[in-house]
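re: ur question from earlier - yeah i can do the single chain one, its not a big deal. heres the input i used so u can compare w yours
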Amino acid sequence: MQVCQTCNLVDTKLYPSNIQVRRRLNKKDTKRLESIKAAHKAARTGSSTRMEDYLEVILELVELKGYATTLDISRYMNVSAPSVTKMLQRLDESGFLEYEKYHGINLTQKGNQLADAIRQKHGILLEFFEILGVSHDTANQDAEGIEHHLNPKTIRQLRKFITFLKSNPKIIQNFNNI
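and the output i got, formated as tokens:
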């Protein structure tokens, strides 16, 4: 740091003010910042990624066994039973399920719709990644991380693209030969 010996001030050429820095930002930089800002303003579904994971697990358990228990959910979510209870209460308050402690867990229509939408997104992403040649395990992990963050319009386009690729297997073959 260079400091003027006479007045003890920092050389502003080396340490520009915020105004100077902002002026240097080019349009590309500010466009990216505005894009991030807009993405965070986007309408939320009223559910979090974690809530959606719980709904997805509950739906799978109900379809597999006919019911879901707190213990089953805790095993598949790798969390404690009290954590599951807290989340079930939250999901109940949000209208995604009906939960009464020591009784059954029933998804509401709203909960079923959201869980099914997440499962469909997961399936579409999994299929896409596998077409790209990603192993099933890796594709499954990646789909699990991404499925909660995609706009329904993006999923529809991805679905159309997968259908297009499957109807043109030569494209997939050419890609796999690269």
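The beta strands are 97-99, 105-107. not sure if urs matches, ping me
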